[in-house]
Amino acid sequence: MAGQREAQKRRTRRLLIESGLRAFQGRGYAAATIDEIASGAGTTRTTFYLHFSSKTELMQAVLVGLDKLVAKHDKVDLTGVVASGERHLIRGWLESRIDQWPTVMPRLTAAFQAAAVEPVIDRDLETWFELAITRIRDGLDAAGRFAPESRHGRGVLAFGQLEALSRRWARRGWESTVERDVALEVLTDSWCALLAD
Predict the structure, then answer these.
(1) Each residue's pLDDT tens digit, 135-168
(2) Which residues of the chain have pLDDT under 50?
(3) How far is CA 84 from the centre of its chain?
(4) How far apart are CA 117 and CA 114, in angstroms?
(5) Phi, psi for 73 (deg, rounded to 5)
(6) What is the pLDDT of residues 72-85, one digit of tens each?
(7) At 75, which helix (H) or strand (E)?
(8) How far apart are the C-alpha atoms of 91 and 105, rounded to whole Å?
(9) DSSP 8-state symbol, 71
(10) pTM over 0.90
(11) DSSP code for 85
(12) Would you state the CATH architecture of domain 2-52?
């Protein structure tokens, strides 16, 4: 019986997260209401508050899910890719990220909206991005490439390019941004210049 209750709690929590994500995508984070999220999950405001103390906490759960989703598809460690300095490995890592965009961008777009009004979400996103930048720097450290004081900045610039392209893609798609393969080649060129030369 206790096992069934726990399974039902997990199911309800998952449904609330999914409903929240739909509401954030449909109306935007700021406009989405807790009543709307609860209703979309087939439950009530009271049940929402049994699982989350606020819309912000629900968004944090979306970010945890996003992190798990990205980690599940990580076939190659970014630190090792950067340390190798090999173009085909850098291109492969970038391509794997681009291939994830259809799945991760709805969650990330909602998080960007939330970050504009929720300082804790802004901090969580910055921590998440800084982790990737640190992995880039660690790869440069391991390879001994470039002046140590420039390695973090190189990571910021490289990851910033990927982030900017992903945001533009989320708003416009490939055709009105740039062709996917062209973008991948140019981004690879840029990453190699920043991290491998």
Answers:
(1) 999 999 999 999 999 999 999 999 999 999 998 8
(2) none
(3) 24
(4) 6
(5) -95, 0
(6) 767 779 999 999 99
(7) none
(8) 20
(9) H
(10) no
(11) T
(12) Orthogonal Bundle (1.10)
